[in-house]
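Practice record 12: protein with nicotinamide-adenine-dinucleotide.
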Amino acid sequence: MRLLVTGGAGFIGSHFIEYFLNQYPQSEVTNLDCLTYAAHPDTVDRLAQLGGKKYSFYKLDIGDSAVTQILKDRKIDAVVNFAAETHVDRSILDPQAFVKTNILGTQNLLQAARTVGKIRFVHVSTDEVYGSLEPGDPTCTEATPLDPNSPYAASKAGADLLALATQRTYQQDILITRCTNNYGPYQFPEKLLPLVIANALEDKAVPVYGDGKQVRDWIYVEDHCRGIDTVLQKGKAGEVYNISSSAERLNIDIIKKTLGMLAKSESLITYVGDRPAHDRRYGLNPEKIRTELGWQPRYSLEEGLKATVDWYVKNQDWWKKVRNKDYFKYYQANYQPKVSDLSEAQL
Ligand code: NAD
Ligand code: TYD
């Protein structure tokens, strides 16, 4: 297969490329990424070394009209679209960037694939499009109506609807995956778990939004990558597939568990103001991908979290590179949940 991965310099996309090159040594992977703040400077080099002649990289926005020519030049059979603005807090500060990449960028890719023809297109989406559950509610199936609450979730829902409409209108080979909160090595330290680990390792405060009793459904990134590959290989055009390890936890519980693994004191926990329109609970039902396509997760939360914590402990240079003073100045200037609660010294 000749695969185009977008957003392959970010967290999940880079894991997927590594997985795919190992799994299918005869395949070729083209990575298209415009390298936003979320693309780690080391990732492009690491993947180039790993992939050798089987790997190419284009520094390009998914909204660029040159995408069509790249699909033709590289004789692409399939696209997996990871490229996105992904952090909810940033979407509250600057929704425009999310609409531009997540909706308009995806539309440009869908259209480029249609122009070229005969391309399987897997669009990577999120459980956040379903909105928030209450504690006793059943988990969301693929038939649950979309009800996004953050600009990030709304932009992902918009892209999902465009992808489905494009499939129906033009009979394109398009599929959607919706996954829960990922964790693992190489995740940018603005997301909860890498932030907790990095702050704790530096004995800085660990910010908990609101009462900390929000629930997230956690999956180890490698299990998500195998799920996407399963859909790419065996999924049916026009279908949506939820991907979940069914590991729902209260934020405060997973934070305490992580601090425990690091042998750090819970006194680092600092309650701060809540995120506006903060979703209370996410939970996905993965029965469809399990029964129809035979996927199942391999990692328990305990195993995945241990592997993640160990990686961040051993690879401190990686996350310190992107946690410099400028990064924190950005947070202090813009952060909605009262960052003033945290002293300069803590940051
Ligand atoms: P990330 O923020 O780590 O990486 C995003 C990558 O996309 C970066 O390399 C960035 O440079 C690139 N990018 C951004 N805008 C671009 C553009 N306009 N053109 C080209 N490249 C661009 O994201 P992630 O956590 O790896 O998420 C990947 C995908 O998976 C996203 O679509 C996200 O919505 C989805 N997803 C993520 C999670 C999660 O927990 N992280 C869960 C479910 C679904
Ligand atoms: P996050 O990693 O931003 O993912 P998402 O909002 O997409 O689920 O946050 C996960 C949960 O952790 C979410 O309920 C918000 C909360 N959170 C904190 O309590 N403190 C933090 O510093 C961050 C980044 C998140």
